[in-house]
Amino acid sequence: DTAVSQTPKYLVTQMGNDKSIKCEQNLGHDTMYWYKQDSKKFLKIMFSYNNKELIINETVPNRFSPKSPDKAHLNLHINSLELGDSAVYFCASSQDLASGGRNTQYFGPGTRLTVL
Amino acid sequence: GNSVTQMEGPVTLSEEAFLTINCTYTATGYPSLFWYVQYPGEGLQLLLKATKADDKGSNKGFEATYRKETTSFHLEKGSVQVSDSAVYFCALPTQGGSEKLVFGKGTKLTVNP
After folding, report:
1. What tens digit of pLDDT does each residue of B42-75 get?
2. pLDDT tens-digit series, residues A38-91
3. Cβ contacts (< 8 Å) between A103 and chain B: which residues?
4. Is the Cβ pair B99, A90 closer than 8 Å?
5. Residues of A numbered 36-95 whose beta carbons fall under 8 angstroms of chain B's beta carbons: which are they?
6. Contact B51 A109 (CB under 8 A)
7. Picking from A9-18, A25-34, A39-48, B92-101, which range would have the lowest pLDDT averaged per residue?
8. What is the Cα–Cα distance from B4 to A62, expressed in whole angstroms?
9. Closest Cβ opposite residue A103 in set B41, B44, B99
10. What one-character-per-residue DSSP string does B86-111 give?
11. Peptide bond before B10: cis, by omega within 30 degrees of 0?
């Protein structure tokens, strides 16, 4: 019944490892996002996909690669993890691109990534 | 692009106190404005929004009025509860028609019994 779900909720890993975070939405939305929230709660968009196509790609290291197998899923793969990657990562979704910026975004519960 | 400046906290209030969290924006045109709330350990959720000037968004006793004269969208609640303790974010699209939001830095509110 959860609208936007993410797995895992917590992820603790060593520097240099590769990890993935999965996101699924059951709202029928066309657009999905990944955000990074740092320790000071500052929230910044990383990527956005619309109908499986990348539409927003902020200045994010290319170690981060989003993948959208279908419009209900947007996964985030991170290669060669670094200490600075430690943060909470949120997935979100919204209806479509035609709202003119009026759409509500629905957020997942977050994945707390800790890199040791 | 558009930007938002939000009052930084933390804000600590006693139950039933009046709350104001200031938010001002810089934008081209009149974009939609949003307040999102993040309860401890959870993701953000929409609290309220206003899609045009002079609109008032309201939800759960919170209100915010879209004021183009002062480019503000301050969040208010007349009587806060312990359950309102959370981080509050003001947000707007980065540019006209964009789905990409820019968020304020967040204001942490703690309400004590």
Report:
1. 899 999 999 989 999 999 999 999 999 999 999 9
2. 998 899 999 888 888 888 777 788 999 999 999 899 999 999 999 999 999 999
3. 99
4. no
5. 40-45, 48, 56, 90, 92, 94
6. no
7. B92-101
8. 28
9. B99
10. EEEEEEEESSTT-S-EEE---EEEEE
11. yes
Residue with tokens 């943060």: A87
Give the phi and the psi of residue A59 in degrees, each rounded to 5: -75, 85
Closest by CA to B76, choosing from B34, B20, B28, is: B20
Q: Would you list the DSSP string of A49-79?
A: EETTEEEEE-S--TTEEEEEEETTEEEEEE-
Residues from chain B contacting residue A99 (CB–CB below 8 Å): 99
Which of B38, B46, B100 minimises the CB distance to A48?
B100
